[in-house]
Amino acid sequence: MPGNPRNGRPYRRLVAALKARGLPCWICGHAINPRLDAWHRLSFTLDHIQPLSLGGDLLDPANARPAHRACNSGRGNRTRPPRSQQRTSKRW
């Protein structure tokens, strides 16, 4: 019985390579602190542009982007990042 593919060596290599590049979160644009605990809401996670549930490839580097845990969770399995709430210039 095969195990979880996210625990495999190829996936861990992809995560390590992307994390080493030090890129900002592709959803919100803010920096990601690589020293945060893995379960911290602003820690590094690998996000897939094409969600795995919609046929995205787990190990394709072109499908992988860095994201904060909270941003990645908030995006869910949508193919686009959620729109940020923009404030109006005046109070109505």
How is the topology of this model organized?
Blueprint: H1 9-20, E1 44-48, E2 64-68, H2 69-75
Antiparallel strand pairs: 1-2
Write up this protein.
With 92 residues, the protein is of the alpha+beta class. 21% of the residues lie in helices and 11% in strands. It has a two-stranded antiparallel ribbon. It starts with 8 loop residues before the first helix and ends in a 17-residue tail after the last helix.
What share of residues is helical? 10-25%
Oligomer: single chain
In the sheet with the most strands, the strands line up as: 1-2
Report the strand count.
2
Taken from the alpha-carbon principal axes, the silhouette is globular
Radius of gyration computed on alpha carbons: 15 Å
**What structural class do helix, strand and pairing data support?**
alpha+beta
Terminal residue distance: 60 Å
pLDDT below 50 for ≥5 consecutive residues: which ranges? none
Rounded average pLDDT: 86
Features:
single chain; 92 residues; alpha+beta; two-stranded antiparallel sheet; 2 helices; 2 strands; 21% helix; globular
Brief description of this entry?
The protein is 21% helix and 11% strand.
